[in-house]
Design a protein that fits this description.
The complex is a heterotrimer. Chain A is mainly alpha-helical. Chain A has 6 helices and no strands. Chain A has one domain. The longest helix of chain A is centred in the last third of the chain and has 41 residues. Chain C is of the alpha/beta class. Chain C has 8 helices and 10 strands. Classes of the chains: A mainly alpha, B mainly alpha, C alpha/beta. Chains in contact: A-B, A-C, B-C.
């Protein structure tokens, strides 16, 4: 039963949106992240292939670890951002928090997909199976599904403020769920012994350094993609406004 | 204004409505019964270790029951703007949530109470002393599902997809409670508390408590326009 | 002893946005106790949103809605106890009887004497004969009266009606007008949205016209019906032109 706007009596332009205009993430910051990503990712790849030693047991396939683990970190970080932004939105009602949450979800799902793709790619040559119900992998599968349900929900709510509210609630519930999922995946697994333990143990220094470089590089990539996506969200909102005024 | 009184009135109203129309229990009950019978054909009924399979199938059917019931119950409120009637009333939003929660719990329990004995009989299970554990797991598990489901149902009916997207929202988030419920039910079917059963029970209690709080805190955001 | 603030509805710069569209655009409105207000405007002008904002279902994007001096946002349940709403839809459960519907709402509203309240309300609205019939079986006019009975159960100080005359025949409409006049006492506020200018002039004592989410006209109706009707038609003419 929402009312559609009707033209004013005197035809004058009406005062436009109620929220104060929000500054776009500075063009320069976005370029900075992009540049940093552009620089660090090749470094990561170089290190992954030449600097880090080859794993005695797993061979060359182990190198995918340097993509897999940083992706996992970012996949989780992105959802933490969704969580915080969701709370901020419900608390303040400011649309920019919803833009942030939506953007982070979209970028986060990409990284999480990377985890789910690199996992089996790693698993097959090394352990002979594409998938295991290893708690971390399982948790990421669930995280991925929660991300998807978040994005699908957004697709089903055309009105922006209601969409933001619903997404925020799902974002909060989903994020709180993730540690519980991990816990249940760990306990469940303990009754089905598997043939490996992905705990990391004590990594040789070179591997550790490479992995950390990976985390840093992927963080820059995340920040870059996030700012690009937020810009799109802002442009879209502005376009909505244009249409209505016309 | 208190929360409990309006919630009980709401649940009572739903019960009366259901008794008149038999809308929810009939369709949901029949569907779940079909699931159970079909599953009994599909899975081996004899043999050791069948408690695990049985628990899994049981909870799939309980999940369907809960999802269908919650979806239908919220859809009824959407007709003739009855949900708005609730929101316009002096009753606090939390009471409306609690009322729908009680209704959904009631419906789902009603279906479960019928399904469980049928299940035990069809699959020739012998829970014996584990029956109390079965009932407890049914209660805690259903509570968890229905808490999250009622919150999401209020959202779902206000989207383009209506109540059809409810399963999509509930299922990922409900995985931990489902897994725990299956584990505890398995122990129940096998005769009683096993070695690892207690942590699962605690997880269920923790899940229920956490999401009940979250749902109560966020429900008014979901119902605001 | 604290004086109870006079019961009145106060909208201050209330704006309600749906996405980029403003259903209400910085609306300022003071409605003191004892008002009987007709709210008119084209479809989409904001009438329904205005009512929903006062009723507490819609939360303003900015600005404040106060009833008896208390902000709606802060004291929802307490203020809603003062408000009765009759909307486009009946808000009644079609498969339950009139009595069951009323009894449910009386309980939901937390009334001390639900049975008496139901009796009183159904007597007043003349629906006692149909108490045991399911709402589904009633005519539109009768359903309306049950909806109104529901809204009056808790004897609210504010009565909001959204296009109650739609779909009513002449007799039912006349009876509704009579009832609203009765209800519009000095202690109450009655707010009706409608399309019919003649009806708007007939009972209400104040006319508010919305257009594009803004208040285009706000005038007391005190016998100058012809002039007011002229002005209103003028507004309509302008709207048609664009």
């Amino acid at each position: 039963m929402s009312d559609v706007k009707a033209p004013t009596l005197d035809g004058s332009t009406r005062p436009r949106p109620v929220e104060p205009a929000v500054a776009e993430p500075a063009e320069r910051t976005r370029r900075l992240w992009g540049l940093l990503a552009l620089v660090t990712i090749p470094v990561l790849l170089a290190m992954a292939f030449w600097y880090a030693p080859e794993d005695a047991n797993q061979g060359a396939a182990q190198r995918i670890f340097y993509i897999h683990v940083p992706s996992a970190w970012i996949g989780f970080l992105a959802f933490a951002v969704v969580f915080v932004a969701s709370i901020a939105f419900l608390a303040t009602g400011a649309r920019r928090w919803d833009d942030l949450a939506a953007s982070s979800a979209e970028v986060g799902v990409v990284f999480t997909s990377a985890v789910l793709i690199t996992g089996p790619l790693w698993g097959r040559p090394v352990w002979g199976v594409y998938w295991t119900w290893d708690p971390r992998l399982t948790s990421f599968l669930m995280l991925w599904l929660i991300y998807l349900s978040y994005l699908v929900l957004r697709g089903y709510v055309p009105e922006p403020i209601r969409r933001a509210r619903f997404s925020a609630v799902l974002g909060i519930v989903g994020f709180l769920d993730v540690p519980i999922v991990y816990l249940s995946a760990r306990w469940w697994r303990s009754e089905h012994p598997t043939q490996f333990v992905v705990e990391g143990g004590r990594l040789p220094d070179q591997m550790l350094v490479t992995m950390l470089v990976g985390v840093v590089a992927f963080t820059f990539l995340y920040l870059y993609l996030l700012s690009v996506r937020r810009r799109v969200a802002r442009l879209r909102a502005a376009a909505e406004l244009e249409e209505v005024v016309r | 204004m208190s929360w409990l009184a309006p919630a009980l009135w709401l649940a009572r109203k739903d019960l009366r409505l259901e008794m008149k129309t038999r809308d929810v229990v009939a369709s949901v009950g029949l569907f779940v019964l079909l699931v159970v019978v079909t599953a009994s054909f599909a899975f081996p009924t004899g043999g050791a270790g069948r408690e695990g399979v049985a628990a899994g199938v049981l909870w799939m059917s309980f999940l369907f029951a809960a999802l269908l019931g919650m979806g239908r119950s919220m859809a009824i409120e959407k007709e003739d703007a009855c949900l708005e009637g609730l929101l316009v009333s002096p009753a606090p939003r939390e009471a409306v949530f609690l009322g729908k929660l009680l209704t959904n719990l009631g419906f789902t329990f009603a279906v479960e109470v019928v399904i469980l004995p049928v299940f035990i009989a069809l699959l020739q299970l012998r829970p014996g002393g584990g029956l109390w554990l079965l009932v407890l797991s049914a209660f805690l598990g259903t509570l968890g599902l229905v808490t999250v489901g009622t919150l999401f149902a209020a959202m779902a009916v206000n989207t383009r997809g209506r109540e059809a997207i409810l399963p999509l929202l509930v299922m990922p988030v409900s995985v931990p409670i489902m897994v725990a419920a299956v584990k505890v039910s398995q122990a129940g079917f096998a005769g009683g508390m096993g070695e690892g059963t207690l942590p699962w029970l605690l997880l269920m209690v923790g899940y229920d408590a956490l999401f009940l709080l979250v749902a109560l805190a966020t429900f008014h955001h979901v119902t605001e326009e | 002893m604290r004086e109870r603030p006079a019961l009145g509805i106060s909208l201050e710069q209330v704006t309600k946005a749906f996405g980029a569209q403003l259903a209400l655009d910085h609306v300022d409105l003071e409605i003191p106790q004892g008002s009987f207000v007709a709210v008119m405007g084209a479809n989409g002008a904001g009438k329904t949103t205005l009512l929903r904002t006062i009723a507490g279902i819609a939360v303003p994007t900015s600005g404040s809605v106060r009833i008896a001096g208390v902000e709606m946002r802060r004291a929802g349940p307490r203020l809603r106890a003062l408000i009765g709403v009759v909307a486009h839809e009946t808000m009644l459960y079609a498969d339950l009887t009139v009595a069951e519907n009323l009894r449910f709402h009386a309980g939901l509203f937390g009334l001390a004497h639900p049975r008496e309240a139901v009796e009183r309300a159904s007597e007043r609205l003349g629906v006692t004969p149909v108490l045991d019939r399911p709402v589904r079986a009633l005519s539109r006019g009768t359903r309306q009266r049950v909806a109104l009975a529901r809204a009056l159960l808790h004897d609210p100080a504010v009565l909001l009606l959204d296009e109650p005359y739609t779909g009513l025949d002449e007799a039912a409409a006349a009876s509704l007008s009579e009832l609203l006049e009765e209800l519009a006492t000095p202690e109450r506020i009655v707010l009706v949205t409608l399309h019919d200018v003649v009806r708007a002039m007939a009972g209400p004592r104040r006319l508010v016209v919305l257009s594009g989410g803004r208040v285009a006209l706000d005038t007391p109706i005190d016998g100058r019906s012809e002039d007011i009707a002229e002005t209103y038609l003028g507004l309509l003419r302008q709207e048609v032109r664009r």
